[in-house]
Amino acid sequence: MALARDAVLWAAENRWLREHLPKYRFVRRSVRRFMPGETLEEAIAAAKRLQGRGLPTMFTALGENVIELADARRVVEDYREAYDRVAAAGLDTEFSVKPSHLGLDQDPQAALANLEELAATATEHDNWLWLDMESASYVDGTLDLYRKLRAGHPNVGVCLQAYLKRTARDVDSLMPLDPTIRLVKGAYREPRELVFGSREVIDEAYRRLALLIIARKGPVGRLALGTHDVALIRQIETDVRGRDGFEVHMLFGIRQADLLRMAGEGYRARSLISYGTNWYPWFMRRIAEKPVENTLLALRNLVARG
C-alpha cells in the first residue's frame, strides 16, 4: 500500500504526466468524483444544492506555484469576485487558499499583501479565509504568513498536517494566538525522516493533536477535523465527551453521505469544494489517499470511455 501511494504521489509531481494525463477523457471523467466542475459557477451550483440539505461549504480555486507575481494578482482578483458571488447567492461558503498560489515562491511580502487583501475581503463579507498547507518545505513560510495575518484578522485559519513529526511543536507555538486550525493527516510525498511511517501512528498523532488543540484553544479559535476517518472523529468525540469543541470538514464527493448524516446529527460540518483547470496534482493526491480503490475507479472509467 505504501509503495502504491508513493508511486501515485511521484506521478503527481512528474512534469510530463502533469502535462499529458489531463488530456485523456477517462482521467477527466475520474476527477468528477472529487469536484463538481472546473468553473466557479459549477462550484456555486453544488454549494446551493448542499446548503439546501443543511450543509455549508468551503471553496478552493485549484492552483499552486505561480510563476509570476502578476499571476498571483489575478488569483487575488478571482477570489475577491468569488467572495462577492457567494455573498450575493446567500451561501455559507468560506475560502481556502494555497500560499504558493498567491506568490510565496517569488516574494513572501507580496504573498502577505495578497493574503491581507483577501482577509480584509473576508471581513467585509463576515466570512473566513483559510491557508492551506502544502509540502513540508512550505510549513515555515506558511506559518509565518499565518502569524502575521492572525495579528490583525481573527477570521483566518491555517491547515496543519498530523503526519509531520514537527506538528506538535507547531501547535504549541501557535496556541498563544488562539488560532483557527484545520487538522488533516497529510497528503504529500515527504522524506521519511520528516513523517510518521504507519497509518496507526499517524492516527494516534492526529488524535493527540486534536485533544491538545481542543483543551487549549480560546474563544475565537476553531478546530476543524479535516478527515474522512469517521471512526477517528467519533473517538475524539468520545475522548472530549462532546462535539462542541470541533467541526468536521470533508472533501466534496468523499464520504458525502456520512458528512450529510453527521450534519443532520448536529455536528458542525462543511464540504470542501475545489474547482478550476489546474486540478492534476490535487487529483493525484486524492488518488493517493486510497490508491487501490481510486485507481480501480479510474480504470473503470477507462473501460467505459466509449
Q: What is the CA-CA span between the terminal residues?
A: 31 Å
Number of strands: 8
User: Could you estimate the helical fraction of the residues in percent?
Assistant: 40-55%
H/E element order = HHHHEHEHEHEHEHEHEHEHH
Question: Can you describe this structure?
Answer:
Helix content is 51%, strand content 13%. The chain contains 13 helices and eight strands. Helix 10 (230-240) links the parallel strand 6 (223-226) and strand 7. The longest helix has 20 residues, at 69-88.
Helices and strands, with pairings:
Layout: H1 2-13, H2 15-20, H3 25-31, H4 40-52, E1 57-61, H5 69-88, E2 93-97, H6 108-124, E3 129-131, H7 139-150, E4 156-161, H8 167-174, E5 181-184, H9 199-216, E6 223-226, H10 230-240, E7 247-251, H11 256-264, E8 269-275, H12 280-289, H13 291-303
